[in-house]
Amino acid sequence: MFFCASDIGWVVGHSYIVYAPLLAGMATIVYEGLPTWPDCGVWWKIVEKYQVSRMFSAPTAIRVLKKFPTAEIRKHDLSSLEVLYLAGEPLDEPTASWVSNTLDVPVIDNYWQTESGWPIMAIARGLDDRPTRLGSPGVPMYGYNVQLLNEVRPANRVASMRKGCW
Fold first, then answer.
1. Which end of the chain, N or C, is surrounded by fewer C-beta atoms within 10 Å?
2. b or e along 81-98 (b: 16 or more beta carbons within 10 Å of the residue's beta carbon)?
3. In the chain, how many domains are there?
């Protein structure tokens, strides 16, 4: 069972609420509303009731939920949940660590743009099961040649462990 807690109007929303789960032969859940209404356990009630195995959301929603007691999450049976995917903005390491520890599942951050149609950087779980690094969106996805470039001289690639732009 797949649960995408995004707005269905966003590319991620209709792609991951409607098309992707059905193409993969999975059931999907359509949920309209906030992660805190009628209470901060609404998503976890859905995970428990429908035995959700994969969930997709945005870091902002997780940061909102982080303000509530973790007991509100842990009182639900989340044993069916295998992985949480997050995208839409950078996922900071403290938030990634908090949600991974609270849910006891791997958190897979991914970076993409509406125009790209699918992730540019991520960990392709099931194809590439390398460990995730909290605070990192992963590695270039198939079809992308991502390089870190020097901000001053964009033609020059940046050495490993240095800052730059891409």
1. C
2. bebbbbbbeebeeebbeb
3. 1
Considering the domain boundaries, does residue 164 fall inside one? no
83-127: pLDDT as tens digits: 999 988 889 999 999 999 999 999 999 888 878 777 888 888 888
Separation of alpha carbons 43 and 103, rounded Å: 12
Q: Which domain holds residue 55?
A: 2-140
Predicted TM-score (pTM) of this structure? 0.84
Q: What is the pLDDT of residues 39-77, one digit of tens each?
A: 999 999 999 999 999 999 999 999 999 999 999 999 999
CATH number for the domain spanning 31: value is: 3.40.50.980
Q: Assess if residue 158 is contained within a domain.
A: no
